[in-house]
UniProtKB/TrEMBL annotation:
InterPro entries: DExx_box_DNA_helicase_dom_sf (IPR013986), DNA_helicase_UvrD-like_C (IPR014017), DNA_helicase_UvrD/REP (IPR000212), P-loop_NTPase (IPR027417), UvrD-like_ATP-bd (IPR014016). Residues 48-333 form the UvrD-like helicase ATP-binding domain. Residues 334-603 form the UvrD-like helicase C-terminal domain. The lineage of its organism: Bacteria, Pseudomonadati, Pseudomonadota, Alphaproteobacteria, Hyphomicrobiales. CDD domains: DEXQc_UvrD, SF1_C_UvrD. It comes from Ahrensia marina. One of its GO terms (cellular component) is DNA helicase complex. Has both ATPase and helicase activities. Unwinds DNA duplexes with 3' to 5' polarity with respect to the bound strand and initiates unwinding most effectively when a single-stranded region is present. Involved in the post-incision events of nucleotide excision repair and methyl-directed mismatch repair. It is an enzyme of class 5 (isomerase). Gene3D superfamilies: 1.10.10.160, P-loop containing nucleotide triphosphate hydrolases, PCRA, domain 4. This is DNA 3'-5' helicase. Residues 1-35 are annotated as: Disordered. Keywords: ATP-binding, DNA-binding, Helicase, Hydrolase, Isomerase, Nucleotide-binding. ATP binds at residues 69-76. GO terms for biological process: recombinational repair.
DNA sequence: AATGCGGGTCTTTTT
DNA sequence: GACCCGCATT
C-alpha cells in the first residue's frame, strides 16, 4: 500500500508569494480550496461580524502574534477565519499553512469550519492536525535519519509497557519493586522535555532501579529501532532531532511553511515548544509568521508536561510580538462569567483577563449550588433536574455532567439507566482499547508489518493453540540471537527440531497463515481480508464458542471494527488512523446527556452544565495538592473555571457529605472552590425533595431530621467562612497534614454533631477548628465493640486492620470503614 | 499448558 | 471495590 506521505506532494512549487511582504500574486486556478478561497476574496464575508479584537487577530498575519482568548470569546472562529484570510489573500497555498491543534477533535472541527468559510472540504490542508499526526508525517518522510523505516509502527501505551517489562526483566531488575508502568511514565516525562537517553540529568537517571534508568532508556530505544517502531513521545522527539541535526531538512520546512498557527498554546510541553521553535526560525531580522492562540486560565495539562510558561514567555521568545486579548464572551450569562471570574481571580500566576458580556438579562439564573447526602442522591437529584428540563422542551444534547474523576461517572450511568435517561459517555473506556479490538489489530499489524514482535507475541497463542510460555521464550531467544523478527525466527524454527512436534505444528500453521495473508494484502479488498484473517485464525470462532456474557458484545465490536475500516483505503492507513485517533466519533443526532471529565470538556459548551463532586480531596483533587502544591491547586482551580465556563445559561454545582472512595465510605467537606464563588452570582438551591429520605437499604438515617442544607449554608458560619475565606483557604492547603487526617477529624465531628443537633453542614465549614482537636486522638477500638456509623447505623466490629475496620452492621451487613467514621455506643 | 484462586495494588486527568 | 498478576493446582 502507499505510504500515507505519498499522496502529499512535498514540493508545491513556488509559493504564491515567496516574500511575505510582496503583493498578492495572481492565481492560476489551482487546487479547489485555494480557488474557492480566492472567489470569496472579492467579498470577504468571513470578516463580517468580527469584533475589533477578533478582526485584528485575523488580519495581523505578519510576524508573531499571541492571541489570548478567554473561554467563549470566539477562539476557533478567529483561528479558522485567519486561515481563510491567509488563503483568501493569496498569501500562501493551503499546503503552506501549518496549523497544529492539541486534540483530534479540535483538528476535525477546524477542518470543518474552514470548509464552511471557504466553501468546501479542506483536502488541500495537509498540515492541519495534531502535533502527533504532523509529527508522524514528518517522521515518515525522514525516518531513515533516525534509524527507522518509513513504515514504522506506532506503539500504544499497552505495547510500551509490555516491552519495558521485558527489558526490566532482562536486566535482572525486580519488576515488582520497579514497575514497568512507573518507568513508562518517567520516560514519558523525559520525552515531554525532548530528552533522549543522553540528555537526562544524572539525578533523573538514578531515580529508577538503582541508577539503571539511563541504560533502560537506551535499551528501550534500541529495541524500538529493531522493532521499527516509535512510541507516542518519539512522534515529537524524532522530528525534533531530525530538524536539529539536518539543516537541509529544516530548510525545506522553513521554505514550506509560510504561516504557522498553534491552538491551545498553553497546553504545549517543552518538546512541542522546541518543535515549534525550530520550525518558526527565520533568517535574522525576519520575524516568523507564527500565531499562537491560548488561554493561560485554561491550562489544565500541567500533569502531563504542559508548560504554562510557554505562553507566559511568548513575548520574550518572539520579540515584537503582537498580543491581542479576546475578552468579550459570547457564550455565558453574566452570572456565570461573574462566578468564574471571581473564582479564577484566586490564582496568582495569570496574565490577567476578565471576560465580559453585554447580554445581561435580569431573568438569567444564578449559578446554583446544591448539597446532597451522598453520591447516590447526587445522581438522583441531578437526574430529576434533567427530567424537569427535558419535559420543559430542553434537548438532552444541551446538557452535560462534568466530573473531576472518571469513577464518578458510574453512579450517573447506573441512575440514568434506571430512570431511562439517555446518555453518552465521552472519553470513557475506549473502543480501540478493548481486548478483542486490540487482539484483532495485532493480527492486522503483523500482516502489515512482519517485524512487529509485540503484536506477534500478543496473538501467537490466541486462540489457544498450545504455544505457551516455553515455546514463546524459545522463539524470542532465537530471534534475539539472530537479530531477526520473531515471525522470521518462527519460519526458521519450524524447519528445525528445536520445538516439540505439537507446538511445532501449531507454529507452522501460524507462520503459513501470516504468509498467506501477507500475500493477499496487495490484491484483496482490505475489509474482506480483515474478515478472512479473523475467520481463518480462529479468532471469531473463539468468541462464538465462548458462552460467557460478554462474548456476543465482543463479536459485535469486531463487526463494528470491520465496518469502520471501510472508510479507509487500506489496512495500513486504518492502522495509522487508529494509533493516532483513539476516539470514535459519537453520533450527535441522538438526543443524549453527555457525561465526561472536565478535561474532556474543554472547548465544548452546553446550555446546562452539572458539576458534581465539589468536595475537598476530590475537587481539588488530593493528589494534585500533594504533588503539585500551590501550582497543583491553581491548576485544579483552572479546571473548575473551565467547568463553569462551559455553561451558557444554567450551571449547577453539587457537593455531597459522603462519598465512597476506594470502597470505603468517607465523610467529605465542601470544596474550597465553593467558598471562592461570589454570593452575588450564586444561589444556594433548595434541597431536593426527599432529602435524606432515600437512603436505600440501611434504615433511617439520623439525618432525616437534620435541617436542610439551605439553612446552614446561610448561617453565620457560612458568612464567617465567606469573610475569612482567604485565611481558611490558605490554612487548608498550606498544611502538609494531609486530607486523611482532616477527613477523619471531620468525620468524627460529623457524627457527633449530627447526632445531637441536627445541623451537619455548619460543622463542615467551621470544622477546621474542631478537626484539629480531634485529629490526633488515638483510635481505641477492639474487636467486638459496638459502634455507630453515620450511614450504616449500629453494628459490631469483627476485624481491625490498622485504621480499617470491618464492621457487621445490623441493617447494612458487613462493611469496611475507616475508624474515624464510627463511634462507640 | 490451562485454569482458578488468592494476594497485592491502585485507583486524575490523556495526545 | 475492582482489577491485575503470579502462583499453585489439575
Amino acid at each position: 500500500m502507499s505510504n500515507p506521505f505519498d499522496d502529499i506532494p512535498f514540493d508545491d512549487g513556488p509559493a504564491p508569494s515567496r516574500n511575505n511582504t510582496s503583493p498578492a500574486p495572481k492565481h492560476a486556478g489551482g487546487s479547489g480550496i485555494a480557488a474557492r478561497a480566492m472567489a470569496a476574496r472579492s467579498a470577504p464575508r468571513y470578516l463580517e461580524g468580527l469584533n475589533p479584537e477578533q478582526s485584528r487577530a485575523v488580519e495581523t498575519v505578519e510576524g508573531p502574534v499571541l492571541v489570548l482568548a478567554g473561554a467563549g470569546t470566539g477562539k476557533t472562529r478567529v483561528l479558522t477565519t485567519r486561515i481563510a484570510h491567509i488563503l483568501g489573500q493569496g498569501l500562501a497555498w493551503p499546503s503552506q499553512v501549518l496549523a497544529v491543534t492539541f486534540t483530534n477533535k479540535a483538528a476535525r472541527e477546524m477542518k470543518e469550519r474552514i470548509g464552511v468559510l471557504v466553501g468546501g472540504a479542506v483536502e488541500g490542508m495537509p498540515w492541519l492536525g495534531t502535533f502527533h499526526s504532523i509529527g508522524v508525517k514528518i517522521l515518515r518522510k525522514h525516518a531513515e535519519l533516525v534509524g527507522l523505516k518509513s513504515d514504522f509502527t506506532i506503539l500504544d501505551t499497552d505495547d510500551q509497557i509490555r516491552l519495558i517489562k521485558q527489558l526490566i526483566q532482562a536486566e535482572g531488575i525486580d519488576d515488582k519493586r520497579w514497575p514497568a508502568r512507573t518507568f513508562a511514565h518517567l520516560m514519558d516525562s523525559w520525552k515531554n522535555k525532548g530528552w533522549g537517553p543522553g540528555d537526562i540529568p544524572e539525578g533523573d537517571a538514578r531515580a529508577f532501579a538503582n541508577g539503571k534508568g539511563r541504560e533502560l532508556f537506551t535499551a528501550y530505544q534500541d529495541r524500538l529501532r529493531t522493532l521499527n517502531a516509535a512510541d507516542f513521545g518519539d512522534l515529537l522527539c524524532h522530528p525534533i532531532r531530525i530538524l536539529k541535526n539536518h539543516p537541509d531538512v529544516l530548510a525545506e520546512y522553513h521554505a514550506k511553511f509560510k504561516y504557522i498557527l498553534v491552538d491551545e498554546y498553553q497546553d504545549t510541553n517543552i518538546a512541542q515548544y522546541m518543535w515549534l521553535r525550530l520550525l518558526s526560525q527565520r533568517p535574522k531580522g525576519r520575524p516568523a509568521n507564527i500565531c499562537c492562540v491560548g488561554d493561560d486560565d485554561q491550562s489544565i495539562y500541567g500533569w502531563r508536561g504542559a508548560e504554562v510558561d510557554n505562553i507566559l514567555r511568548f513575548e520574550k521568545d518572539f520579540p515584537g510580538a503582537a498580543v491581542i486579548k479576546l475578552e468579550r464572551n459570547y457564550r455565558s450569562t453574566a452570572h456565570i462569567l461573574g462566578a468564574a471570574a471571581h473564582l479564577i481571580s484566586h490564582n496568582e500566576d495569570r496574565l490577567g483577563k476578565t471576560l465580559f458580556t453585554d447580554e445581561a438579562d435580569i431573568d438569567d439564573p444564578k449559578v446554583q449550588v446544591h448539597a446532597a447526602w451522598d453520591s447516590e442522591e447526587e445522581a438522583r437529584a441531578i437526574g430529576e433536574v434533567i427530567e424537569r428540563l427535558y419535559s420543559d422542551q430542553n434537548d438532552l444534547n444541551e446538557m452535560a455532567i462534568l466530573v473531576r474523576a472518571s469513577f464518578q461517572m458510574r453512579e450517573f450511568e447506573e441512575r440514568f439507566i434506571k430512570s431511562g435517561i439517555n446518555y453518552r459517555v465521552i472519553g470513557g473506556p475506549r473502543f480501540y482499547e478493548r481486548l478483542e479490538i486490540r487482539d484483532a489489530m495485532a493480527f492486522f499489524r503483523v500482516v502489515c508489518q512482519p517485524a512487529d514482535d509485540l503484536a506477534f507475541e500478543r496473538i501467537i497463542n490466541v486462540p489457544k493453540r498450545g504455544l505457551g510460555d516455553a515455546s514463546v521464550r524459545l522463539i524470542h531467544d532465537y530471534a534475539r540471537r539472530k537479530d531477526i523478527p520473531m515471525l522470521a525466527a518462527s519460519a526458521e524454527l519450524i524447519e528445525s527440531t528445536e520445538l516439540k512436534p505439537k507446538p511445532r505444528a501449531a507454529l507452522r500453521e501460524v507462520v503459513l497463515n501470516f504468509e498467506r495473508w501477507a500475500n493477499a494484502l496487495e490484491n484483496t479488498e482490505h475489509t474482506e481480508l480483515a474478515e478472512t484473517i479473523l475467520e481463518e485464525s480462529g479468532y471469531t470462532g473463539m468468541w462464538q464458542a465462548d458462552r460467557s456474557a460478554e462474548a456476543p458484545g465482543r463479536l459485535e465490536n469486531l463487526k463494528e471494527l470491520i465496518t469502520s475500516m471501510s472508510e479507509f483505503e487500506s489496512l495500513r492507513s486504518f492502522l495509522e488512523h487508529v494509533s493516532l485517533v483513539m476516539d470514535v466519533e459519537q453520533n450527535p443526532d441522538d438526543d443524549k446527556v453527555s457525561i465526561m471529565t472536565l478535561h474532556a470538556a474543554k472547548g465544548l459548551e452546553f446550555k446546562t452544565v452539572f458539576l458534581p463532586g465539589f468536595e475537598e480531596g476530590l475537587f481539588p483533587h488530593q493528589r494534585s495538592l500533594d504533588e503539585g502544591g500551590r501550582n497543583g491547586l491553581e491548576e485544579e482551580r483552572r479546571l473548575a473555571y473551565v467547568g463553569l465556563t462551559r455553561a451558557k445559561i444554567n450551571c449547577h454545582i453539587w457537593f455531597v457529605s459522603n462519598r465512597r472512595i476506594h470502597g470505603l465510605w468517607q465523610s467529605t467537606i465542601p470544596s474550597r472552590f465553593l467558598d471562592e464563588l461570589p454570593t452575588t452570582h450564586v444561589d444556594v438551591a433548595d434541597p431536593p425533595s426527599g432529602y435524606g429520605g432515600g437512603n436505600g437499604g440501611y434504615g433511617q438515617s439520623r439525618f432525616d431530621k437534620a435541617e436542610p442544607f439551605q439553612n446552614t449554608y446561610s448561617t453565620p458560619g457560612w458568612a464567617r467562612a465567606q469573610a475569612n475565606k482567604t485565611d481558611a483557604t490558605r490554612n487548608n492547603w498550606g498544611s502538609r497534614s494531609g486530607a486523611n487526617v482532616e477527613r477523619i477529624g471531620y468525620g468524627e465531628t460529623d457524627s457527633r454533631r449530627g447526632a445531637g443537633r441536627g445541623s451537619i453542614k455548619g460543622t463542615m465549614i467551621e470544622g477546621e477548628l474542631v478537626a484539629k482537636s480531634v485529629a490526633d486522638k488515638p483510635s481505641d477500638f477492639t474487636v467486638g465493640d459496638r459502634v455507630f456509623h453515620i450511614k450504616f447505623g449500629n453494628g459490631n466490629i469483627v476485624q481491625i486492620d490498622g485504621n480499617k475496620l470491618t464492621v457487621s452492621f445490623d441493617k447494612a451487613g458487613e462493611k469496611k470503614v475507616l475508624d474515624g467514621f464510627v463511634e462507640k455506643v
